[in-house]
Amino acid sequence: MGKNIDDYLPFILKNTNIARIENNVVLIGDRRAYPLNKEFVVCHSIEEVAVAIETMVTQGGVQCVLLW
Question: How many domains does the chain have?
C-alpha cells in the first residue's frame, strides 16, 4: 500500500521529472538528453517555458504551462 502510479513509471514519465516548480523556477526534464543524461532545463519566465516547449525540451507542454 501507499504506492502511486509514479512508483511504476520509468524516470522520464514521472510527473516530477516532466516538470516541477522548485525555488521559484520551473524545471523541465530535458528529453533531448535522455537516456544518456538526466538533465533539467531551468525556466525563469513563461517565455522561457514556451521556448522549451517549442524546442522540444519536453513533449509535456500542458504540465509546464499548468505549473506556471
Answer: 1
- Alpha carbon distance 1, 32 (integer Å): 34
Helix then strand then coil, % of the chain, to nearest 5: 40, 20, 40
Tens digits of pLDDT across the chain (68 residues):
668 888 888 888 888 888 899 999 999 999 888 888 899 999 999 999 889 988 988 875 555 556 55
Indicate the pTM of the whole model: 0.75
Q: What's the domain range around 44? A: 5-67
How many CA atoms lie within 13 Å of 20's alpha carbon, on the beta-carbon side? 12
